[in-house]
Design brief:
Blueprint lengths: L1 H11 L1 H7 L2 H25 L1 H12 L3 H14 L17 H25 L6 H31 L4 H10 L6
Helix pairs in contact: 1-2, 1-3, 3-4, 6-7
Length: 176
């Protein structure tokens, strides 16, 4: 993803394109990274089908607990206590992770589809290529924002891996 974002930025921003130069190689690297991004899920699915189908089942099932997850922030704003049933089994993915997976899959598919007229520009009208480019850029920016939010929530938020672990370690009782 980083290669796609960086090479896409170099091709889209004229100042970066002038600094880096080598537009042919930047474009070739962008296309190779796009092909790898498109092919990787298929390769992984063939190679590790039982695990992939299990993950897909967990991501595809939306239950009452998932919809409750989305209402939690609003309950806080309404000064209502959030109740968590300790007996209720935790799902493999929370609703935010499921939503991220859906949005990322849709955005990546749309990026692939809008990239086709841009690559084979001579087979499409100039208007289709221009619209595809505009949509491609907007989708790429949205996906970068989505990924940034995902990284923040996963690592740096109060419940993330880095801050959450530090907080949990600081709250442990001290043994004397």
């Amino acid at each position: 993803m980083a290669v796609l974002v960086l090479t896409g930025a170099v091709m889209y921003v004229p100042a970066l394109s002038q600094v880096v130069g080598q537009r042919f190689w930047v474009r070739a690297l962008h296309l190779a990274a796009a092909a790898a991004t498109a092919a990787a899920p298929a390769v992984v699915a063939v190679w590790r089908w039982p695990e992939v189908s299990s993950v897909e089942r967990h991501l595809a099932f939306w239950g009452r607990q998932d919809f409750g997850w989305f209402t939690q922030p609003w309950q806080v704003f309404r000064n209502r206590e959030i109740s968590v049933d300790p007996k209720q089994e935790q799902a493999r993915f929370n609703a935010g992770q499921k939503l991220f997976a859906v949005l990322a899959a849709v955005a990546l598919t749309a990026l692939l589809l809008t990239g086709v007229p841009m690559y084979w520009w001579d087979r499409f009208s100039a208007e289709v290529v221009a619209r595809a480019r505009d949509l491609h850029v907007l989708l790429a920016m949205a996906l970068v924002a989505l990924l940034a939010g995902h990284v923040y929530l996963g690592l740096l938020s109060p419940y993330g891996l880095l801050v959450g672990r530090r907080r949990a370690a600081s709250e442990r009782p001290v043994r004397h």
